[in-house]
Amino acid sequence: MDKETYLSIIAVSLLVPCILIAIRLLQILPSSHLGKTSSKIIVNDNIKGKHIMILLGSGGHTGEMMNILSNIDLKNFNRIWVASSGDSTSLQKAQTYEEKLEKTKYSTSFMTLYRARKVGESIPSSIISTIKSLISTFTSLLTLPHIPSIVLLNGPGTCVPLAYSLFVLKFFGLAHTKIIYIESLARVNNLSLSGKLLLPISDRFIVQWEKLSLKYQRAEYYGILV
Amino acid sequence: MVTLLVTTGATVTFKELVRNVLQIEFIRGIIDLGFNEVFVQYGNEIKDNVHQSDIFVQQVLKELNSSDQLNFNSYSDSKASIVGFPDTDKLQLFTSSKLDLKLYLFPFSTNVNAYINRANLVISHAGTGSIIDSLKLHKKLIVVINDQLMDNHQAEVAEEFCKQGYCSSLTTKDIKDGASFVKAVRERLAVESKPFTTSKSNVIEAIIYEELAA
C-alpha cells in the first residue's frame, strides 16, 4: 500500500466518525430551540404515566426544588426521586410531598447517587470523585426499569454527571429524556458552574433573575419561582 | 407581643450574628423599641458528635449574664407557654427578673415558617431560603451578610433584594456596635414593607407538559 492510500484511509476513518458524531450532536443538541412557555397546561392521555425524575441536590437546592414542586401536581406521572448518598433530609422532604399527593396508579421510587464534588475539595481529588460519580450515575441509570422522559434539575454538582449520563444515552438513541434546569435564586449576576455546564445540553434552561436571561440567550425568565 | 426572630441557618454557626444579638446593649435597645419576645435560631452544627452551636450559645449566654448581672434563667415551663409551635422540645425559654423580655433559643426547626409568621421583624443570615420565606410572609427584614464564608455568592441575592427595597443589609462589621445595630433595626421598622410577589402561574408545570408533548 503506498503512502498516499494509507494516509487517505486514515483521514477517512477519522473524518467519517467525526462527521457522524457532529451530525448526531446537531440532531440532539437543543441549542437551536428557544423556549418560551405559554403557561397553559394541556393534559393529554399520552402524557399521563410518563416517568419524571427529580433531583434533590441537598440543602438550599432541595429547598428551592420543593418550593417549586409545591405548585405542581405530579400525580399523573411515575416519580423517581434522586438524592445524594447520605442526604436523608432531602428524601424525607420527598416523602412528605408524596404523602400529600393524591393516590393514583402511578409509582414512586427513590434513588441515591454517589456525591460529586464536595465543598472545598481539591482539584485532583474532585476530578477523581467526578469520574467515580459519572460511572456510578451511568450504571444506576442503566439499571432503572424506565429511563425517565423528563428530569428536573437545579444544581448543585451532582446534577452534572446525571445530566451528561442522560445526554450520552440520548446520543446513542437509548433515551429521549428532556432535561429541564432551573438555576438557583442565589445566582443573580452569573450562572453557577453546574448551570454553565448544563446550558448547552438542557432542553429548557430557566433562570430567576432577568439579568441572566439578558446575558444568556437560551435562558428563560418568568420571575421568581421558589 | 412584639416579636423579633433571629435566624442564622441550620448548618454552620453564624457566631458573629448570635454574639451580637445576645449583647446587652442590643437587648436593651430593642426592649426600648417595644420588643418583648426574641427568638434566636442559633444553628445545628455538629462536629465529632459534639453540638458546636449549643456549646457556643451557652458560652455567649454566660457572658451576657455576667455583663450586667442579668441572670437569664432557663424557664422550665417553656413548652406550655408556646403551645402549637413546631419542635418545642428543642425550644428553651430564658427570662430575667431585670428585663421585661422572653428570650427563646433553639438550634433549628423543621418548620421555621411558624416562627417567621409570629415575628414583627426578622434578622436573618443571607440564605436564600430564609430571605424568601420572610418576604413571602411580608415581614420586615434585615439581612446580615456573613463575610467569613468563603464562597459568598449568597450575599448577591441579599444585595439584590435590598437594592429593590425589600430589606436592609448589614455586614458583621455593622453589627459589632450594639447602638448602631439598634439604629438599623429602628430604621427598618420605620419603613413600610414593600409587597413581595413570586411568579404566580405554574410555569414549570406548563414547561413539563410542553416538553412531554413535544
Description of the structure:
The complex is a heterodimer of chains A (226) and B (214). Chain A has 7 helices and 7 strands. With 226 residues, chain A is an alpha/beta fold. Chain A has one domain: Glycogen Phosphorylase B (Rossmann fold, 3-Layer(aba) Sandwich), CATH 3.40.50. Chain A is globular. Chain B is α/β, with parallel strands linked by helices and 214 residues long. In chain B, strand 3 (46-47) and strand 4 (50-51) form a beta hairpin. In chain B, the strands form 2 sheets. An 8-stranded mixed sheet of chain B has the order 5-6-7-2-1-8-9-10, sandwiched between helices. In chain B, strands 3-4 form a two-stranded antiparallel ribbon. Chain B has one domain (3-213): Rossmann fold. In chain B, helix 2 (24-32) runs parallel beside helix 8 (178-190). The mean pLDDT of chain B is 88. At the A-B interface, helix 2 and strand 5 of A face helix 6, helix 7 and helix 9 of B.
Summarize the structure.
The complex is a heterodimer of chains A (226) and B (214). Chain A is of the alpha/beta class and 226 residues long. Chain A has helices at 3-28, 59-69, 88-100, 123-143, 159-171, 193-198, 210-215, and strands spanning 51-56, 78-84, 108-113, 150-153, 178-182, 204-207, 219-221.
